[in-house]
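Protein modeling request. Please complete all fields; requests missing the sequence field cannot be processed.
Requester role: graduate student
Desired output: 3D structure, token encoding
Chains: 1
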Amino acid sequence: MNIYTRTGDRGNTGLFSGERVAKDDEKIEAYGSVDELNSILGALAAALPPDRRALIETLRGIQAELFVVGAWMAVTPGSPAAKQIEVFEDERVAALEKHIDALQESLPTLTRFILPGGHMTSAWAHIARSVCRRAERQAVRIFRNDHAAARDRVHETILSYLNRLSDYLFVLARYCNQIQGESDIEWR
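Delivered output (188 residues):
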């Protein structure tokens, strides 16, 4: 398989469900943000100390889930291609909540706003959080504009997942500072 197809040379691309759209289509923007988030999570996982294997594995699992999120964004609801994509269940949202709770157990109570930064791994988590929020905003837009998607339970779950993922990434940023011996940077 060639990496290049030349089919996008004139500014359009194909959705997973087969339709051709402009590369600046809102669906392409949305799953492009999910792809960007996935890449940032890869950088974060690579920057974590090797002894944090469980945390790295959690991030790898989230990366795999983001592939499914992107696939749902790249398909027209009700199309035959939609039947080929793994169903996105509420359990994925619940799993993120468990990860948040576990990380928060060791963190001091937050009493002030904090600035993104501290250790490099914390900075990557904050970057991931802000890209996740953008992906969430774009997902809201594409699902709202596609009336079939707006009524689809999978799309509702994806919106919840992206919302909870940004919460997880915020807590993870604080946790990364803690395990690296850095303090959160308080906004004054």
